[in-house]
Amino acid sequence: MSIQSKRQAYLASAPGISDESLSLSSEAAKVGAMYLRLRQKPSSPAANNTHLEVISVTGLEPSDTLSLTQYLQQINLPANLSGEIVFEFTLSKGRVGRIMLEEEASTLKTANVIELIKRHLLKWRPSQSVNSTVVLRLRIQS
What we know:
Blueprint: H1 3-13, H2 19-39, E1 51-58, H3 62-72, E2 82-92, E3 95-101, H4 111-123, E4 132-141
């Protein structure tokens, strides 16, 4: 039985549950999974134990937020860092465009770290359908 057939059978047997509520439940599950992953310690921490945490993201769907979080947590950051960095960037047709550092909102000002994260953001590939402006707040701790 295909997934679509199972979904239709479930909807038929569960009064009061709509296709829309199943989609919302699926999105809520993705956000919950993202939260749990953010709260877990990395399975293979960098030797310097510098940790990058995504504090908030606006302008992305939950699945792209999860993808971005996982991607950024793979960056090998230098030791002895602490602070927050806030970026604003555009997305168009699955590509990251202009990236701007929000200097007033950022407490970490280390230029090489900011450039390292910007380079990674430029390489990240969100869903092709995403066209938006994203605000990303990161916390970095050693």
